[in-house]
């Protein structure tokens, strides 16, 4: 009986993590797209990277929402990698600089970006682990 109750909970948890993870990837896309339009597009390397983050965030959200169960761990892991990569780039740009660009924590949407990327990394990693374990059972 206990095993029967675990399946629906696991399915519900997976669904919730899919939705939240996709929403966070859309958040990353919206922030980077907005900042790209607000002037970051003119910054060498950083501008194109922001545009790429916008596109990849949207594609990642779609992948997390629409991936069949067998591909979900990979879609979630790719989304987590995107979030972690953007988080790493944000921290690097604020500390030592990135491609000659140095950001400040006072910059527009810095903290929002930081927390969305942290949350996306955590949620999508949890989804990847949960989906991977679900594939083995």
Describe the protein's topology:
Elements lengths: L1 H36 L8 H21 L5 H24 L14 H27 L1
Helix pairs in contact: 1-2, 1-4, 2-3, 3-4
Q: Could you give a quick summary of the protein structure above?
A:
The chain has 137 residues and is an all-alpha fold.
How would you describe this structure to a colleague?
- Keywords: Membrane, Transmembrane, Transmembrane helix.
- The protein is built from 4 helices and no strands.
- It is elongated and about 45 Å long.
- It has helices spanning 2-37, 46-66, 72-95, 110-136.
- The chain is mainly α and 137 residues long.
- The longest helix is centred in the first third of the chain and has 36 residues, at 2-37.
- It has one domain.
Number of domains: 1
Unreliable spans are: 1-8
Radius of gyration, in angstroms, nearest whole number = 17 Å
Order of helices and strands: HHHH
The total beta strand count reads 0
Mean pLDDT: 92
Strand content: under 5%
Percentage of residues assigned to helices: over 70%
Which descriptor suits the 3D outline? elongated
Q: What are the defining features of this structure?
A:
single chain; 137 residues; 0% strand; elongated
